[in-house]
Write a structure and sequence with these properties.
The complex is a heterodimer of chains A (271) and B (272).
Chain A: E1 4-13, E2 16-26, E3 31-35, H1 42-50, E4 57-62, E5 65-66, E6 75-78, H2 90-102, H3 111-127, H4 143-155, E7 161-165, H5 173-190, E8 193-197, H6 201-207, E9 210-215, E10 230-236, H7 240-259
Parallel strand pairs in A: 3-8, 3-9, 6-7, 7-8
Antiparallel strand pairs in A: 1-2, 1-4, 4-5, 9-10
Chain B: H1 11-39, H2 49-61, E1 63-64, E2 69-70, H3 71-103, H4 105-120, H5 127-134, H6 138-163, H7 166-174, H8 179-216, H9 222-229, H10 235-263, H11 265-271
Helix pairs in contact in B: 3-4, 3-6, 3-8, 3-9, 4-6, 5-6, 6-8, 8-9, 8-10, 9-10
Classes of the chains: A alpha/beta (271), B mainly alpha (272).
């Protein structure tokens, strides 16, 4: 169970107010998408949640406890670019997190633990469709593949929340669609919470279970920096009750399919 | 008729074109040397090939009684060992100092202005101080080289570390990395190719400092020999020595380039 709470969060730089009075409670296993015009503070909101920046007022709680003052392993992230390490192979990139956790001094695991980790990493790479590229360097991958790698790299650590900062912004439409499918499936499988920032409205409603728009509700033409952005609308895109009923139905169908051992037309197809 | 920038030579032609100026300079020298020797057979300023050959084979093979080995190899050994030690220490200081200063904000605030100031001091201007403080032996020469190139390398590494995308560092932290782990697994590997680049760029200055130090005082060395025989107008020694120093510099540079390409295959990919 993961619950994220923004309690009256403000972010100011000197006299310029970026975010004002952001109040938000996000239940477990939600896919929150934050939309809004460019430069309004969407990314700032995400950075606050990442603790890359600190709120000037208010608190951000993760499962009831205030989040650490620096980025930590409970919040994974995928940025629009530069999310993978160019000097490590695809497989090494994915293995990094657990190696760091398991070996404080060397950052390397050996023997059986290494083999076990390798298998986990390969399984994850297989899941995101990069298994045959395991030995390549990120620069040899396309933009979409790099983003899939970044996802796998974060997911191996099993973060409570996955933060996505316009992760598909630099991709061509084809790989963008493929990424949408992958992210949705991963969100279902891992039953985690995702917070994504985008300026693409279609994408927001296609992926999100909850969509919030942030904007500046007030404007002072003489001093535009005096009013910050806040949540201006909060939309439940896919109500939990509908999602739950879909899930129960899927489980029922699966159970039925297992009873009828030879019923290939009922098994889930992946596109 | 296309624009001139749109004509490119084929690889073979490029090689020929690149070699042509060298051949031209060589021919010009030989012609001028012949002309001078025709007027005065004892001319020392532009010796001919036979004089070079005689002098060099003597320096390379005849065991000098004072140092118990041929002078040419003795000098080469001295200069190379000074150069490599100086570069080695500078690279070590550069990578350790550069990473710590570039990566840790408090260290950066403390030491960056100092490194900047140090890099502005002309090293040759402090050479007398070094000779006074460290004596006339090897220490002062080593310190001169390090003083001359280490601040440059440190600054270069600091800039590189600062240029690593913030996203990568944040990502590493969300994967649970400690500062030490980020230094070892994220910053250091990405700084090493740049370190080799900066060492390559500093090779020229390193040679300058080696030769400057040797010119003043030394037991032996390529620069020492050049400045020693200068008073006899021994161009038959000086010119081959200069060519040899150039060749050594080229070989070192080439070796570093190959090392970088072999050790960091990913660095080339990123440029592409």
């Amino acid at each position: 169970m993961t619950e994220i709470r923004f309690e009256k969060v403000w972010k100011e730089y000197g006299s310029a107010i970026v975010l004002e009075n952001v109040d938000l409670t996000l239940a477990d296993h939600e896919f929150l998408v934050v939309i809004g015009p460019s430069g309004v503070g969407k990314t700032t909101l995400l950075r606050l949640l990442l603790a890359q920046e600190r709120p000037t007022r208010g608190r951000i709680l993760l499962d009831g406890a205030e989040i650490a003052a620096e980025p930590t392993a409970d919040r994974g992230v995928v940025f629009q670019r530069y999310s993978v390490f160019p000097h490590k192979t695809v497989l090494a990139n994915v293995m990094l997190g657990p190696q760091w956790a398991g070996s404080p001094l060397l950052g390397r695991l050996f023997g059986a633990r290494r083999r076990a980790l390798r298998e986990r990493a390969m399984a994850l790479l297989d899941r995101v469709g990069l298994a045959e590229h395991a030995k390549k360097y990120p620069a040899q991958l396309s933009g979409g593949m790099q983003q899939r790698l970044a996802l796998a790299q974060s997911l191996i650590n099993k973060p409570k929340v996955l933060l996505l900062d316009e992760p598909f912004g630099a991709l061509d439409p084809g790989s963008r669609r493929a990424m949408h499918v992958l992210v949705r499936e991963l969100w279902e499988e891992q039953a985690m919470t995702i917070v994504m920032v985008t300026h693409d409205l279609m994408e927001a409603f296609h992926l999100g279970t909850r969509v919030v728009a942030i904007d500046r509700p007030r404007r002072d033409p003489q001093a535009p920096e005096r009013y910050g952005a806040t949540i201006t609308s909060d939309f439940c895109a896919k109500p939990r009750i509908v999602r739950d009923s879909f899930r129960f139905e899927a489980a029922r169908l699966r159970a039925a399919a297992e009873r009828e051992a030879d019923a290939p037309f009922l098994t889930r197809e992946r596109d | 008729m296309r624009r001139i920038i749109n004509y490119a030579p084929s690889p073979g032609v490029a090689l020929l074109l690149g070699a042509a100026p060298f051949v031209a300079v060589g021919m010009f020298y030989l012609a001028a040397s012949d002309a001078r020797l025709a007027v005065d057979a004892a001319d020392k300023l532009m010796p001919g090939l036979s004089a070079f050959y005689a002098q060099m084979s003597r320096l390379m093979t005849r065991v000098d009684p004072a140092v118990a080995q041929p002078l040419f190899w003795y000098d080469t050994w001295w200069s190379l060992s000074r150069l490599l030690q100086g570069i080695g220490w500078s690279a070590l200081i550069g990578i350790v100092g550069g990473i710590l200063i570039g990566f840790i904000p408090f260290l950066r605030a403390t030491f960056e202005p100092l490194i900047f100031a140090l890099s502005l001091i002309p090293p040759l201007a402090v050479l007398p101080i070094l000779f006074i403080a460290f004596g006339l032996g090897e220490t002062s020469k080593l310190v001169l080289i390090v003083f001359g190139i280490a601040p440059f390398i440190v600054r270069d590494v600091v800039l590189l570390v600062a240029a690593i995308p913030r996203e990568q560092i944040i990502k590493a932290q969300t994967l649970g990395a400690s500062t030490w782990q980020m230094i070892v697994d994220v910053v250091l590997p990405q700084a090493l190719p740049r370190l080799i680049e900066s060492v390559r760029l500093s090779l020229g200055s390193a040679w300058l400092f080696v030769i400057a130090a040797e010119a003043i005082t030394a037991e032996g060395g390529l620069g020492y020999r050049i400045f020693l025989v200068r008073r006899y107008l021994a161009m038959d020694v000086i010119l081959p020595y200069v060519v040899w120093i150039t060749l050594l510099a080229f070989l070192l540079d080439y070796a570093l380039r190959k090392l970088s390409a072999a050790a960091f295959p990913w660095a080339k990919l990123r440029e592409a």
